[in-house]
Amino acid sequence: MVEVPRLRPEDAEAAVLVDVYAAGVSFPDLLMSHGRYQRKPPLPFVPGVEVAGVVASAPAGSGFRPGDRVAAFIRVGGWTDRVAVRPELTFPLPDAISFRSGAGMPMNYLTAHLALTRRGGLRQGETLLVHGAAGGLGTALLQAGRALGARVIGVVSTEEKAALARAAGAHETVLVDDWLADVRALVPGGVDVLADTVGGGRFLDSVRALGKEGRLLVLGFADGIATVAANRLLLKNVDVRGVAWGSLIEDEPAYPRHQWSEVSHWHAAGHIRPVDGAAYPLEQAADALRDLEDRRATGKITLTLREESGGPVVAEQNPNREAGTH
Ligand SMILES: NC(=O)c1ccc[n+]([C@@H]2O[C@H](COP(=O)([O-])OP(=O)(O)OC[C@H]3O[C@@H](n4cnc5c(N)ncnc54)[C@H](OP(=O)(O)O)[C@@H]3O)[C@@H](O)[C@H]2O)c1
């Protein structure tokens, strides 16, 4: 058994202490566990970039009180029973959102908000294409795109994922095998904004899928890092734009609260409905990571640390494993 250092008392004083009910399981957790993420925490470390739970204590002036329901982003260390969070990365969680749903919201929905508003400039009536549309970030992008009034198309690898993406918010879906031809049939002039969470082998076709002055948003590399020759951008009058929410909020600490307020309005208006994936007990966290790695995950996977009622955790079978799809 390896002991991981707990929080220092001086850090705890400035932080909101949160009793964790649910913790998100994210692709960055998977990459960090392999040492393949841009940030490499010193070993040993506790994974977990985001959580939802109840405030145990909060510094004066933070705006939070013990007992408040919150979601929070902490980068690393969330898979545990109590976390210390910077106040500006702690967000009020409406009663209508469960801890399970809330645990998957900060990173994905605030990244989707940044991508489509500020970086992508998505306008009402434009077309948005989303790769990995049944995944955690993908489903958030679909819903944020609808909230902004776009026509939203999802690219997915199976019919099951297509059904999930449509239920989550996609107007249309195409299967990955022949996705470029299918998208061209749906949108002959090309798409205005393409949100790419996958990269890898389909990146060049993503540039080809753009319409005039289209914007390709580089969000992630589930299938690896891609390159593109700059002449293709010139010839088509298109942009490739990077989106790194985690870096941007270091320079602009007040921005996430502003984003959370807009996302909360989207939720109140019915545009945002987090898509819950499988929920695992903490002891099965490695299985949760394997679901992401083996491309089995749909929606947002979480770990359950406490039941919504505050009672002990009751193990839930993962339907992917019951179905024997691995
Ligand atoms: N830029 C940012 O600020 C930011 C923030 C959060 C996350 N991210 C990144 O966004 C990406 C997606 O994260 P996520 O949490 O949405 O992950 P996820 O839930 O696992 O979804 C990723 C999707 O990618 C597709 N995919 C294609 N090739 C894959 C492969 N070789 N391995 C695994 N999946 C593959 C899968 O969809 P199909 O099977 O349908 O193809 C899968 O549903 C990650 O690279 C993550 O690091 C970036």
Structure report:
- The chain is of the alpha/beta class.
- It folds into 2 domains: 145 residues, Quinone Oxidoreductase, Chain A, domain 1, CATH 3.90.180.10; 127 residues, Rossmann fold (3-Layer(aba) Sandwich), CATH 3.40.50.
- It contains 13 helices and 13 strands.
- The two termini are 30 Å apart.
- The structure holds NADP nicotinamide-adenine-dinucleotide phosphate.
- The site of NADP nicotinamide-adenine-dinucleotide phosphate has 29 residues, from helix 2, helix 4, helix 5 and helix 10.
- InterPro entries: ADH-like_C, ADH-like_N, ER, GroES-like_sf, NAD(P)-bd_dom_sf, Quin_OxRdtase/zeta-crystal_CS, Zn-ADH-like_protein.
- Pfam families: ADH_N, ADH_zinc_N.
Key phrases:
NAD(P)-bd_dom_sf; 326 residues; NADPH:quinone oxidoreductase family protein; alpha/beta; ER; Rossmann fold; binds NADP nicotinamide-adenine-dinucleotide phosphate; Quinone Oxidoreductase, Chain A, domain 1; seven-stranded mixed beta sheet; 13 helices; disordered C terminus; 2 domains; globular; Quin_OxRdtase/zeta-crystal_CS; 13 strands; six-stranded parallel beta sheet
What is the third-level CATH name, the topology of the largest domain?
Quinone Oxidoreductase, Chain A, domain 1
Please count the helical segments. Answer: 13
Based on Cα principal axes, name the global outline.
Answer: globular
Count of discrete domains: 2
- The CATH architecture of the largest domain can be named as Alpha-Beta Complex
User: What is the name of the CATH class of the largest domain?
Assistant: Alpha Beta
Q: Would you tell me the structural class of the helices and strands?
A: alpha/beta
> How many strand elements?
13
Oligomer: single chain
Cofactors, ions and other ligands in the entry: NADP nicotinamide-adenine-dinucleotide phosphate
- Reading the helices and strands in chain order gives HEHEEEEHHEHEHEHEHEHEHHEHEH
Q: What's the overall average pLDDT, rounded?
A: 92
| Span between termini | 30 Å
Report the radius of gyration as a whole number of Å.
19 Å
Portion of residues within helices: 25-40%
> What is the CATH H-level superfamily of the largest domain?
Medium-chain alcohol dehydrogenases, catalytic domain
Major sheet attributes:
7 strands, mixed
Uncertain stretches of 5 or more adjacent residues: 319-326
The percent range for strand residues is 15-25%
Region (Disordered): 306-326
Protein name: NADPH:quinone oxidoreductase family protein
InterPro entries: ADH-like_C (IPR013149), ADH-like_N (IPR013154), ER (IPR020843), GroES-like_sf (IPR011032), NAD(P)-bd_dom_sf (IPR036291), Quin_OxRdtase/zeta-crystal_CS (IPR002364), Zn-ADH-like_protein (IPR051397)
Domain Enoyl reductase (ER): 2-303
